[in-house]
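So, can you check this one?
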Amino acid sequence: MKSTFISREKNDVKFTMEFTGEEFEKAVIAAYQANKGKFAIDGFRKGKAPRTLIERHYGEDVFFEDAINELFSQNYFKALDELDINVIDRPNADFSEIKKGEGFTVTITVTAYPEFEVKDYNGVEIQKVENTVSDEDVDKELEVLQTRNARMVLAERPAKEGDTLLIDYAGFVGEEQFEGGTAERQPLKLGSNTFIPGFEEQLVGCSAGDEKDVVVTFPEEYHAENLAGKEAVFKCRVHEVKEEEKPELNDDFAKDISEFDTLEELKKDKKEKLEKAAQERAVNEMKNAVLEKIYDANDIEVPQVMVEDEIDGMMQEFDQQLRYQGMDLEKYFQYLGKEAKDFREELREEATKKTKTRMLISAIADAEKIEVTQEELEKEFELMAIQYKLEVEKIKSMLGAENIAALEKDLKMRKAVDLVYDKAVIK
């Protein structure tokens, strides 16, 4: 196969792949060997008929398509590599006349990655960001630990917001009890907003043993059409009122929930961790500020095919998030009365910005000849092994060559961001 570059207009690249008659004949023989079992010829068992008889019966081009497809798939990426073309879309192929035993030429037009020179990325001026940690921030962290280690105890008093009730309820629209509106001994934390708006507030002030009719109106966009917009009465009975009993903040608490012997040691550790996190946030904010400046300084064309790919990824990620909540994109669109194409358009601006930013970072990495060492890659594998509690070799085998290449590219991009941040002028 011989590959020849023809032209490039903006991002559209044209080149040819030429195959000799000998190469084509070998591919046809291979196609015959792979497919001969599919043909039935009188006097021959399946798979035993000679190629000449099959071609006489079905046409001499019977194996051409498979042969051409195989030649194309084997040589397309080889040609891209030889001609140093980085494509971002599927190719359009135009074939010359195909004849038995003769060579042919494929003329390919494909969208390639844009060529541009990134500018103004050295010495970017940004404002310094400082995130401080106060004693109040530390106290809030300790309150979280208290809440996490709290226990539920019966409250001998009327319920207030934040309490957890154990209730029975049955829902009615008019005189008719509706399906799915009944439960027994159902826990409900007042103020959690997990029930229909207005439901939880009406149970504030109830005590164990009380019965209460809770009157609510279902939202107009409620997923059950037979209930949407309708007024309903939930007949409720309160079995228990429980409140959180938080442990006292003292040395014993510190010993129980941490490796420290005193509350002061625990506080000090929390403050150090908060300060480290605050510093990391500040650095990330400044890195983003540098990227924003570079983004604004470079007016480059962003191919729509790359934007569409980014939107696909964003929608897939959102779909996964919805599935964790027991929903999916289709149900989400039905619930909102929205179509997928409208949602895609809402994502377009953000997807375009993400794509352009990634293009700029990649261009900086290339301009600065940034490489990822094997040592840096191994360190990343080790971090992943710790995160997922697996052996390093297991991580590598699970990732596979394609994902490892993507990880290497990601590390390269991170190093490029670090480089422009290190060269930034921080005021």
Observations:
- The radius of gyration is 33 Å.
- Residues 210 and 275 are 49 Å apart (CA to CA).
- The mean pLDDT is 94.
